[in-house]
Amino acid sequence: MDAVDPAADPAPDRTADRALGHAADRTFDRAADRAFDRAPDRAGGRTPFGPRVRVASAPVSFGVYDAESASIAPDDMLATMRAAGYAGTDSGPVGYLGTGAELADRLARHGLALAGGWVDLRYGDARGFAEDLAGLEAALDVFAGVPVDDPRFAPRPTLACPADPARFARPGAPVDRALQLAPDVWPGFAARVREAAARCRDRGLEPVFHHHLGTDVETEEEVERLLDLADVSLCLDTGHLWLAGGDPVAAIARWSGRIRQVHVKDASRDTLARVRAAGGDLWDAVRGGVFPPLGGGDLDLDAVVGALARTGYEGWVVVEQDVPATGPDLGRVAADQVANRERLARAGLVGGPPTAPSAPRGRG
User: Does residue 356 belong to any structural domain of this protein?
Assistant: First the structure.
């Protein structure tokens, strides 16, 4: 889950295990090497993807949803990602990893690239949208300032809606149709999405729109409506689509021409149903394990990877496993990052390896 909750979890204890990142070998952990070595030989080569796909991790997998209350320091988190074999990271809350030269230097030290970052705007509210544009421009300043070695892997501004409190309280399928956008709201909503996308493109960045539980764009039907009305690329999130009643494999085939980023996330419909039956909201679902490690939920990962291969997908694949913001078990988190990377490799998606860490750039 990204930064969409109307009321954030209580701030976690900043004394969480700082040894986590320091224990990571920045020359690339042997567990990651084993994942690459065990990747299946497919389509006449090691995988059908090769250098056209890179795999990133995300701060949400460490319980980081707010920069001020993060339970792990940025360098510790990035070192753990690097050790697990990831080539990049999502930004998490803008500013958590730094901005400008600080961000570029931090990524370079860890041999990681920036895959993109979440920016939500109130598309259904003209006045609110206008107020939110300053935040979009600030995020674009951050993303545009990061060095990029291949335009396919430039940071994707991840456009999304903020939480709708009523939908956040009853996330996923079945969706109460009374809470969905009214037909007469959609034209203005889509026009504002187009404006946000144009602002990103004016900065040389291709945005993607992220459908998400608890927001105005949650179901396959809502994604279809948005794609019909707005010239915007899509961030397909397998876990959020599955819990909203969708089929990620079919969606990859149907929307392949619009997908410019993929978030791979496992999910459990049974867990969500239990949380909803108990009156829980999306945060309760996250705490209840609705997004388990890859292989622990309902997602047919092999079929997802196969669909991406068949459709010729290229770009970032971001592995996410949302964990609670308060008191995450950072040792378990680190182990899950390795396991998720290995599971993805066994499914046939290896992607380009991390780059070599580098010294910080000179300040002049």
Answer: no
